[in-house]
Amino acid sequence: MRDAYHEELDSIGEGLVEMARLVGSAIGRATTAILDADLKLAESVIAADEKVDDLQRDLEARAITLLARQQPVATDLRIVVTSLRMSADLERSGDLAQHVAKLARLRFPETAVPRDLHATILEMGQLAQRLMAKAGEVIITKDVDLALQLEQDDDAMDLLHRTLFQHLMDDRWKHGIETAVDVTLLGRYYERFADHAVSVAKRVVYLVTGEHADEIAPPTAVEGA
Predict the structure, then answer these.
(1) pTM tops 0.70, yes or no
(2) How many Å separate Cα 204 from the centre of its chain?
């Protein structure tokens, strides 16, 4: 019974890794769709989100069953509860990728992003994908130092987000209100996607250490101490 129980715990972890892989791929493909006005690709991202939702529902059901049947304590309880929270972060990340794709579909055959902002949006999309890939690696490795690095990596996304607003507030903005709204939404989607990747990593820190990530000095601070 205990072997089956721990196999189920491992299976929940594998489900989280798969969710991270899927949503990371989704944000990358959605970025391509929004920049290239690729309707077919946008539709595929929108449709694929159902698989992420299904994984989240399945993981949640299995976790609740474990809680009911095994009544785990200590570390095992932390694994189950934290996994539920991570699955919610990942499911929301999938929704945000879907929002990007839906905006691409809404503006087709035009693109929602002005040509002079393509490079910034592309960089945001690539960074979002890298952050989620790193979050997936953290789930696998339980590497606390790597998990703590994600919050520092997220600073780059915040900087890109601010860059978008600088363009929007510039007196030379010539793309109109509708495009300004589109760009504002896109910036928010990418910024929130990155926040969820960081949240997943922070939850792994708690899973491993029993401490919240904010209570632990980042790797650079430790090295310099």
Answers:
(1) yes
(2) 14
